[in-house]
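User: Predict the complex with trimethylamine oxide.
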Amino acid sequence: MKSINKLTKILTMAGALAFAPGLAVAEDSSDPIIIPIHNWSSQIVMSNVVGQMYESMGLNVEYVTTDSQAVYESVRLGDVTLELEVWEGAFGASYRAALAKGGMVDAGEHNAITREDWWYPLWTKEACPGLPSWEALNECADLFRTAETGDKGRYLDGPVDWLKHGQERAEALDMNFTVINAGSAAALWAEIGAAEANKRPVVVFNWTPNFAEAVWEGEFVEFPTWEDGCDKDPAKGPNPNALYDCGNPATGYLRKVAHHEMTTKWPSAYCVLSNISFTNPQIAEMAKMVDVDELEPEEAASKWLKGNKGVTQPWIDACTT
Ligand code: TMO
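Assistant: Here is the predicted structure with trimethylamine oxide placed in the model:
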């Protein structure tokens, strides 16, 4: 369906140009397109991939490191030009708030289907066979006790700026878990790696697409199914008095957004942005090139682009020829 829409769009554009030979297409500004960089690998590599695509079109690009929630306000105001990875689970609320205030345009979804939630490597299930249900996890809470968490189980959540509301979820569902925020994505992988040697049960925040699925077999914990408004309306979810008593969306979107002036200031670049649509395997590979192969993000991006010209060049050609 998605690809048919895209094909229709490309054909319609080609048709429009064919019948409007005198059409003057405005040139893109030589001002730098400002691309924000966050704290997980696929986003960093993808940002460099798209930045290098723009450079191949003769455009100027600058990267800035920004907070992954505040960035939506920055896109809206034009302090940054775009955002390439709007994950529904982590950033849906900030995205919706900024979109409603005005100044940000939706540049469409990637092909990818995303999920972000409590996750365990498969050896954990040997010790807690009722998994993946959250009630079973809760009954096994003792298995996850550490010196730090006392008589409660330890759940290692993502860095604070991903706003996963793990503590609120544990409280809303009356779980015997203490939620600790990791300082970085690397701390999540270290936690899994350290548990692997003696197959110690662990539960950590994880997501897909990600490199981790190629390294450790595992599963997401099944929480009460996400309902729209679970983060705003206590009536949603099983606890009538609490927010965040649902899992994250299990088939979430991954979206692109831009500052509204990008459409007129860099029309070709915006056209390319709207064509861009990465898949789960492509995004997992971008992460792997940094987290497993240990390439620098810029290197990973240029290597990824070299291997995938057949994917990216048509997105550019449809906007520039
Ligand atoms: C926002 N993230 C993909 C790290 O969950």
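Residues 40, 87, 90, 116, 158, 162, 207 surround trimethylamine oxide (CB under 6 Å).
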